[in-house]
């Protein structure tokens, strides 16, 4: 019996793919902005989509702390369609992006190679879970609450404070921090009696020397943050009650990336779309060497 034209066409047609469809950049940005609402960002911050066509498909998303040249080159080499960074490329307003300076050149390189750029900065700091949750979990600190809660929502805010399972000497805790975070040339600095017991821990990913008072009010024994300066740190010690652990800015924020990537994947998969993700392991801390004095 001769085959009907329709049957022949159906036989020749490729089988329907069971793979989830690629997400559009618009859909990926919508998920990211639900996770890290732009309204949670500080007024001075610059977050959101920096460049990219919302209608383009996204199959691979890269996550990194800094949108520096090496990270962008890696994203291009690995075929990323979107680079999500914690730190903004442009924190202040610009009137153009000519390729005559390094930031303009980076924008041109991203666009030429079809890589979109999205930033989640202080909105990711305030999110639940956010940057400081990831830092606290990396250190084994649980039962978390915001160090500086946002008005109207006790779950959101900058920094976290919580508890270790058991108290331990400050020296042992500092070793815990050094082991938990990626290595940098600056390492970990400690201020306080090495033998003092610590259990309640305050953390703030990134530069957190404006929250000494909040850490003290929360009853923290030790405060882990980055970019501590001489005078604020000295005054915090003189005020008493608080030991300090100072780590590299980049290292304090890097633990957030894997959780952010995982949440993006699972959220998009639940909506029937699929993306691959990777977390850059390039060390973008600007300090490249440490020489002990004396």
From TrEMBL:
Belongs to the GTP cyclohydrolase I type 2/NIF3 family. It comes from Catenulispora yoronensis. Gene3D superfamilies: NIF3 (NGG1p interacting factor 3)-like. This is GTP cyclohydrolase 1 type 2 homolog. InterPro entries: DUF34/NIF3, DUF34/NIF3_sf. Transmembrane segments: none annotated. Homohexamer. Keywords: Metal-binding.
């Amino acid at each position: 019996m001769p085959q009907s034209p329709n049957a022949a066409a159906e036989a020749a047609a490729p089988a329907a793919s069971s793979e989830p469809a690629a997400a559009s950049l618009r859909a990926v940005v919508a998920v990211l902005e639900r996770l890290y609402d732009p309204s949670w960002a500080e007024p001075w911050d610059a977050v959101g989509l920096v460049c990219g066509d919302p209608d383009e498909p996204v199959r691979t998303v890269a996550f990194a702390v800094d949108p520096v040249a090496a990270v962008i080159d890696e994203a291009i080499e690995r075929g990323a369609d979107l680079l999500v960074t914690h730190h903004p490329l442009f924190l202040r307003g610009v009137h153009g992006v000519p390729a005559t300076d390094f930031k303009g050149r980076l924008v041109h390189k991203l666009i030429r190679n079809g890589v979109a750029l999205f930033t989640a900065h202080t909105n990711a700091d305030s999110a639940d879970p956010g940057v400081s949750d990831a830092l606290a979990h990396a250190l084994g600190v649980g039962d978390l609450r915001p160090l500086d809660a946002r008005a109207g929502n006790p779950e959101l805010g900058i920094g976290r404070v919580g508890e270790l399972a058991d108290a331990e000497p400050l020296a042992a805790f500092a070793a815990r921090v050094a082991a938990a975070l990626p290595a940098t040339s600056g390492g970990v600095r400690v201020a306080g009696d090495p033998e003092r017991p610590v259990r309640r821990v305050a953390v703030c990913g990134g530069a957190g020397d404006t929250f000494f008072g909040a850490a003290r009010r929360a009853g923290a024994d030790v405060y882990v943050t980055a970019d501590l300066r001489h005078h604020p740190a000295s005054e915090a010690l003189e005020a008493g009650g608080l030991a300090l652990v100072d780590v590299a800015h980049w290292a304090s924020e890097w633990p957030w990336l894997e959780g952010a990537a995982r949440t993006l994947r699972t959220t998009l998969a639940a909506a029937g779309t699929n993306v691959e993700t990777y977390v850059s392991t390039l060390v973008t801390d600007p300090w490249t060497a440490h020489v002990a004095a004396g």
